[in-house]
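Recap from last week: sequence in, structure out.
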Amino acid sequence: MGDPAGIGPEICAKALSDQQVRQACDLILVGSAESFRRTCDSLAIPLGSIDNSLKIVDVPGLTDFSIGVDASTTGKASAQYIETAVRLWQAAEADAIATAPISKKAISLAGYDFPGHTEFLAHLTDTARVGMSFFGGDLRVVLLSTHLSLVDAIKKVTRDNLLELIQFSHNELGKLLGKQPKLAVAGLNPHASEGGMFGHEEIGEIGPAVEDARESGIDVSGPYSPDTVFLRCYRGEFDAVIALYHDQATIPVKAFSFGSAVNVTLGLPLIRTSVDHGTAYDIAGKGIADPSSMISAIKLAAELVRIKHR
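Predicted structure tokens:
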């Protein structure tokens, strides 16, 4: 259910009342049952309309709190929801986890030393290597680096780093998609440097990494001009694009699928999807939050489970 002080309860209530979501899978809500019921009441969503297809795993202990404010109470609650969801998966009572947004500051106030869901889930599942990807309809991107300054992100564009990411993406997307993925690598510089005219990274680092990966049998090509490769993927030419820094990945994803894109964590032993936005404290409790990304996250999780078991 995410951070109780944010829009998590609201988007969960709206998503779980969606008929397509209810038909996609058997639903388990992990969080505060009282908070969820109170949210349903405020939104005039009859709980009875979703009760038949929803199991609520109530995590007790949430005391009084203020909407839209970081607090140790809500941080602890949201962390406990994550821990409970993982235990359900470990007990084979859940096949996948779709997460509503948490506050990094709130969980820090509660004493948890994790910058977000991804690192927390990696810790709980004893996973050494995880990666961030976004699925926006027919566009899928995998990120070489995430929250770094652009100067520091460029330093990460090395032959070894890219080769490792291409191999990792090949393996993990292959598991999720049930086939050998066709990967494209974006260039770093304008027009992928046009043979070295606008930078050296494509010739010295990116191109050699692609060739190394191809020699090992991976279906990957590039580097391609970053202003066209994402559209080519969206149109079906590739299964995913390897993006070289955060905004290179997220700008096209949000341009094509704003509000409905899904964050998919690669490398975990479980399927985990998430919304592509934060807690939105500024609109929490107002009943105006858009559940599109939560709906997409749940439906994609169900689809990935079906692919895994077919």
